[in-house]
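Write out the bound-state structure for magnesium ion.
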Amino acid sequence: MREESTIYAPATAPGRSGLAVVRLSGPDAGHALRLLTGREAPPPRKIVRRSINDPITGESLDQGMVAWFPAPGSFTGEAVAELYLHGGRAVLAAVLAALAKLPNLKLAEPGEFTRRAFLNGRLDLTEVEGLADLVAAETEAQRRQAIRQLEGALGALYGGWSESLTAALARLEAAIDFPDEDLPADLIVSVAEQVAPVASAIAQHLADGHRGERLREGLSVAILGPPNAGKSSLFNALSQREAAIVSPHEGTTRDVLEVALDLRGYPVLLADTAGLRRTRNEIEAEGVRRAERRAEGADLRVFVLDAERAWEQLPSLLNLKKDRDLVLVNKIDLLAGRPLPDLGLPFLPVSVRSGTGLNDLVERIAEIAAQTMDSLGSPALTRARHRAALEEAAAALGRSVTARDPELLAEDLRLAVRALGRITGRVDVEDLLERIFLEFCIGK
Ligand SMILES: Nc1nc2c(ncn2[C@@H]2O[C@H](COP(=O)(O)OP(=O)(O)OP(=O)(O)O)[C@@H](O)[C@H]2O)c(=O)[nH]1
Ligand SMILES: [K+]
Ligand SMILES: [Mg+2]
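---
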């Protein structure tokens, strides 16, 4: 795939900073670099000091550094030049304006460098997505998952399955295309045996409780409970800012408030909700409905009760799932030596006011996040796009189990291979042809 145009764009975020990086990619990148510096390109992959000048007027714009990556040894696989400038707005603006004056150069579209890298076979689609996730990663666990995907772990997993299926398919294709050749009579059985482990690996990969997708999106945690239990106080304490209004009046919170947290490296979307109670106030009633809706969609529900009224508040624990939901008894500072209530269910005693028990709570939520998101061993499925394609592959393989006719079996395998190929963006027929002739040495 050859691109005619040369693209350029800042690779760093706008604003005042130590450095700003501008990247150029395409056939004219080297020419542009020579025009900007008034000198030959430096040796490949060496960062050297150069003055950066306006190519038309010769005016000096910045004293920077440049690097030169001839094709194909670059991120995009094309000729690439990089300019390391002083990170001021005016410097960047002047250099971008100078580049705009050069013919055949155009400002890159979002993602265009990566798109070129994909088209030139430098990255497969899962690696492209891993790169996007890495740049977007806000927590340590997200970073780990993204770098693993960028380094090709997911692509290799899917590629391996695709390869096994392609090998099986190649044997079948040969039987179909050359029916006069001597082929093993039990071909269908042996192909099915080859396909079965792939089918079960895909099924297992799909049945992962959406951990990879959850890790990208964050664990959704809803704080719920009766009015005045201290939900908003807890929300503020965990998010370490006064995001929610706290007051001694019941029914203070109406809207669902949300904050993204990093709990021990795991992303959590924490929601504060209206106190659950029957009310004639229309606005508060809408708040309660929203709270209930959020409770339904949450991965984890944290119920907050008031230590002095915990007994009477027990009915507010909407169909509590004991193995999953957390119950907090808040305001234990008010008990002043009196024993904790015996509620007949496990709970965490806390005082948001004094901070008692909050560490244990964070620990507990982080533990649940880890259980929900960590993928032990094999890399995790991270996107709905992958899931849809894998489900398609699994369905085709499911059908193939019962196929008795080589043509139908081959068609199912072909569909499965194509579905897997869509995930990595590499569906090659060449591959299949090559295998057919390689494995059978048919000599025709
Ligand atoms: N003594 C004591 N008071 C607390 C504690 N946590 C919260 N409060 C007080 O309890 C009252 C209600 O707190 P909020 O955080 O507004 O309670 P809420 O559950 O969000 O209330 P609604 O939004 O109205 O449902 C406020 O006066 C808080 O200062 C605590 O640990 N100890
Ligand atoms: K309140
Ligand atoms: Mg509140």
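---
Residues 192 and 421 are 20 Å apart (CA to CA).
The radius of gyration is 30 Å.
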